[in-house]
Amino acid sequence: MSAPSAHDVCIIGGGVTGAGIARDLSLRGLSVLLLDKGDWGAGTTGNSSWMIHGGPRYLEFDWNTTRLSTQDAGYIVSIARNLVYRVVFIIPVMPHDKNNIERMETAMEVYDRFQPLKKAHPHTRLTAAEALQVEPGLTPDLIGAVTMEEWGVDPYRLVFANVQDAIAHGARALNHTRVVGLVRDGGRVIGVRYRGSDGATSEARARVVVNAAGPWVPEVSRMAGADVHLRPAKGIHIVYPHRISNFSISAESIDGRDLLMVSHAGFTLLGTTDDDFYGDLDSVDVLDDEVDYLLQAFERVFPSIRTYRPVRTTTGVRPTLFKWRRYEDELSRRYEVIDHAKDGADGFVTIAGGKLSMYRLMAEQTSDVVCRKLGHEAPCVTATRPLPGNESDVEPAAELGRRSGITALAAMKLQTRHGSNAGAVLKDSRSGRMICRCEPITEAEVSWDGARRSDSTPHASSFVKHGWGARQSSAIPVGRRKSSRSARSEVYPADGTRRFAREARVRVRRAPDAETIDAPAFAARESPGNICVRRHSPAAV
């Protein structure tokens, strides 16, 4: 075992909350070590609906969560401009729905009060004819609709942007590194013991250890002799490799849950379920019944849904705070920061619960607790300090493309991933050499991203699997059961960029038939554009 490294803070968990804490504390001048047992954001964060949203359904039982969520979403939208885009929903109202059109509009009028906090627009009421005009795929049985605006985001890019900024301010970040134990000195936690991707075990000493492991929070807490109770909730999504509707659509399930079909420009997510989960968090399967449950709900409002061919499913587990007797869908998305000094584990802090759209606030409040314990006085600046790539406005995509020898579309896509750093990415001599034709990716971007992945740089297969930050689970045709565990990434040498690019091109050319597609090569999500009405035939897709 090598000599222990020393840090002010060690953070366990590289989801969006852990990455946000690492960034916050690094910006406050503390030395930070961030550890995750898999890929950055590969747990709950990456298996979300890819939205920064306020959660209007919480208005029924948790106004404070809606307020905090919309407020923090506004901050995230400001600091991550290149990663976010508007997602407009149509919420159809059917005959005999528990909420008629008047009640739905009243609910949206209440939600409109929160919309300015996240820089979103108020709702619009649509007649049945108007709804069918803009969204022909809706059922003709609807009696009206209302609109709602939220924000879409690439959660993997959001996590990695936080990791990048933390590293830029002195943090060390290790993925594919599993914490196997805590180092104690009497009643105090003074560090962690971890096993790296090479199988070697190491120790890191820290004045404070933060448990930000999401649904794995109880497991990590037990290492400190503390009990944190969660009520884990499993959620699945069906993934379509294209848009199947002009707008995102809300539907009601057979048991009254609100479900969403989210159009993220170049792909569609249909979900999500919300069920108590008692199984192995490292092996979560998608069941046939869960898929049918989602399709049944959307068939009622979007009758042609079964004629479209999905390419995979994703599944994740929410780290919901424990509550007895509540129906799963009514569980609060509140969070709690716990100082375990009272449990005989001083120096150990847990952040549990919450949701993606409040990650920055959760990170701020956790960092406040850590700083108080260390006697370190420094303000939080993450609400206003831009994430990497958002420090300045981007240049026109057409101009960037001409200067770099790529198309305007390729330049625009690059800017959605790297923002104002897109020009720096294309300074590489390989800027015009494309790896993927379906989603314009250059060798220059491969080299740029690979050089910035700190101590663990994924192998080509992992880049293809994630679609350059897009969650691309293994091939999972709908109706087939398959674990959605993220594949272990391997480390490739710093001088292996050309070999990496060659492997990526080979994988693109060998992409199998779409019915059991193995992560459409580098299918990074299309950036937002103008909504156009599509009347294509489902059978032709």
Structure description:
The chain has 541 residues and is α+β, with helices and mostly antiparallel strands. The chain has three domains: 5-44 and 156-229 and 333-374, FAD/NAD(P)-binding domain; 85-152 and 231-325, D-Amino Acid Oxidase, subunit A, domain 2 (D-Amino Acid Oxidase, Chain A, domain 2, 2-Layer Sandwich); 397-516, no CATH class. It is 28% helix and 21% strand. The protein contains 14 helices and 20 strands. It has helices at 16-27, 63-79, 101-112, 128-134, 155-168, 217-223, 288-301, 359-374, 397-404, 408-418, 422-425, 443-451, 460-466, 497-509; strands at 5-12, 32-35, 51-52, 84-93, 125-126, 144-153, 172-174, 178-185, 188-195, 201-211, 233-240, 248-252, 258-263, 268-271, 275-276, 312-318, 335-339, 348-353, 434-436, 441-442. The strands form three sheets. Strands 3, 4, 5, 6, 11, 12, 13, 14, 15 and 16 form a ten-stranded mixed β-sheet that branches. Strands 1, 2, 7, 8, 9, 10, 17 and 18 form an eight-stranded mixed β-sheet that branches. Strand 8 and strand 9 (188-195) form a beta hairpin. Helix 13 crosses helix 14 (497-509). The longest helix has 17 residues, at 63-79.
